Amino acid sequence: MGALLALASAVFYGMADFAGGLLSRRAGFALVALTGQAGGLVLALAAAPLYPAPSPAFPDLAWGALSGVGTGLGMIFLFRGMTRGAISVVVPVSAVGGLALPVLAGVAVLGDRPSALSWLGILVAVPSLWLASRTAPALSTAPAASLDGLTAGAGIALQYAALAQAGQDSGIWPVTAGRLTALAVILPAALPPLRAALTRQGAGPSGRTGRTGRAAWSVLPLRQAAGAAATGAAATLALVFYLLATREQIVTVAVVLSSMYPAIPALLGLTVLRERPTRLQTAGLLGAAVATGLLTAG
């Protein structure tokens, strides 16, 4: 059951990643991310009372909040890295970092002991995830962009590692706490483009300031805002599935299975956008399927 929950987490996170990427091409990523976290917060607030939570203690909520810090930092540095260097390097670096660091923490700190099959699945998953995430060949990229990818990976790792520490009696309230914190982390990055857009749209043809009452909706139109909110809700649902998976499965295996989400945008790109996969990307997707089978069997 734990493996299925972790795989469901990967599917929902992958769909959110794919949809968020498409939306970000039409609107500022920071605004899409902020709206997405707001949508995720609404879903978490609506769903939390439905899941039994006898005693959500403060430490559980604190772990959830720390997880939200990782979410916010991961999104900010991933975006900045993609604007400073090759996406085909930044995204795989962040994905592999987000997988490897929690695995190391699970084994070294939490005392997880994966089975032999699970270890084999982990060893296959790391290079497969790298290959599947590469959308195009890149000979080089700016060192600063690679550093952003590593930082984003550390944020994703923090998201997974911290959320796994929340106790079972806390229900899914830690996810709710995480959405609040992620909003606070992303907000400073979203304010400059929001102010700039409001200023541009508040000025008339002569340069004079006009009415700005509807500017916020024109910065992020209603359809895009709804799409971003739905994307954030899907990502929040992915974290709920991941949290539940850690209560049924050792953290190391739950993290690896949930971290297979970059394969979903690759598959959607092939089927929905009619993209042509490279040989290495195809090998990565096949390896991800093999790793998933090994981890599920282990």
From TrEMBL:
Keyword Zinc-finger: no
Transmembrane segments: 6-23, 30-49, 61-79, 86-110, 116-133, 145-166, 172-191, 225-244, 250-273
Keywords: Membrane, Transmembrane, Transmembrane helix
Protein name: Multidrug DMT transporter permease
UniProt lineage: Bacteria, Bacillati, Actinomycetota, Actinomycetes, Kitasatosporales
Cited SUPFAM superfamilies: Multidrug resistance efflux transporter EmrE
Keyword Membrane among record annotations: yes
